[in-house]
Amino acid sequence: LCLLPFTGPSSYKVGTMAEKFDCHYCRDPLQGKKYVQKDGHYCCLRCFDKFCANTCAECRKPIGADSKELHYKNRYWHETCFHCYKCHRPLANETFVAKDNKILCNKCTTREDSPKCKGCFKPIVAGDQNVEYKGTVWHKDCFTCSHCNQVIGTGSFFPKGENFYCVTCHEAKFAKHCVKCNKAITSGGITYQDQPWHADCFVCVTCSKKLAGQRFTAVEDQYYCVDCYKNFVAKKCAGCKNPITGFGKGSSVVAYEGQSWHDYCFHCKKCSVNLANKRFVFHEEQVYCPDCAKKL
């Protein structure tokens, strides 16, 4: 920051001539007239402006002997010409910054050096609330949803390419919707047979136990945990009377005449030979191998 001094008598002297002297340049008599003494010479005001005066860096006109002059690094200004390049605020008695050959006040310097808002392209200065994402910055009120244009500010948002969406618009535009409750799945969803579910919605129809990551059975678009399927849905084996679940041992089932058996329970009533995938005789609700059936 700099504060400019006015140049004064230290560089030249202005007065009214009482003695007989002529102008150094035009040779006109100076007695009784205003004159300027500079570098040991006397000159009239007209010749001073023509031959001696500095040129104002702003208006490009001579800085006359009666004018207040400011200088900075070999450049000169009229007092009234020395102002901020941006806002034109007078700076004769103010601190300033010289940047790229331009004179700026403190406020404009701050704005000049401040990052620019991606939304309004105006500077973000100290004290402004802002939002920053991946090296880009916005004023808080300029960070808006690309769909509804409502201010997101410092709230939650979803980036999508060059666009940003509030939670509501992202859900409506991009999120999958649960097949059970039809609400958007924002996190923690699961997929079964290419259909999306909330984990809290994919539960046993009987006991409401969550089925994600668990063994379950689907029956006519209803989902059951293993225990509920055994107790309420599974057919009972005509041999051992236990549920036929399709899990583990006995996953193969033999069905005949409306009855079902575990494959390991389907054996001859008399000789106990297993008849799964073999010929058998069904007589009076019982199963027999062909040899034992001949003896009935």
Q: In CATH, what is the class of the largest domain?
A: Mainly Beta
Per DSSP E runs of 2 or more residues, the count of β-strands stands at 20
- Counting helices, strands and paired strands, the structural category is alpha+beta
As a percent range, the share of helical residues equals 10-25%
Mean pLDDT, to the nearest integer, reads 84
The run of helices and strands is: EEEEHEEEEHEEEEHEEEEHEEEEH
Strand content: 25-35%
**In angstroms, what is the radius of gyration?**
49 Å
Q: What is the count of DSSP helices, taking H or I runs of 4+ residues? A: 5
- What are the low-pLDDT stretches, counting only 5+ consecutive residues below 50? 4-10
CATH third-tier fold name of the largest domain = Cysteine Rich Protein
Major β-sheet profile: 3 strands, antiparallel
CATH superfamily name of the largest domain? Cysteine Rich Protein
- Principal-axis shape equals rod-shaped
**Tally of structural domains:** 4
Give the name of the CATH architecture of the largest domain. Answer: Ribbon
End-to-end distance, in Å? 118 Å
Within the largest sheet, what's the order of strands?
1-5-6
Domain LIM zinc-binding: 54-114, 115-176, 177-234, 235-296
Protein name: Four and a half LIM domains protein 1
GO biological process, one term: cell differentiation
Subcellular location: Cytoplasm
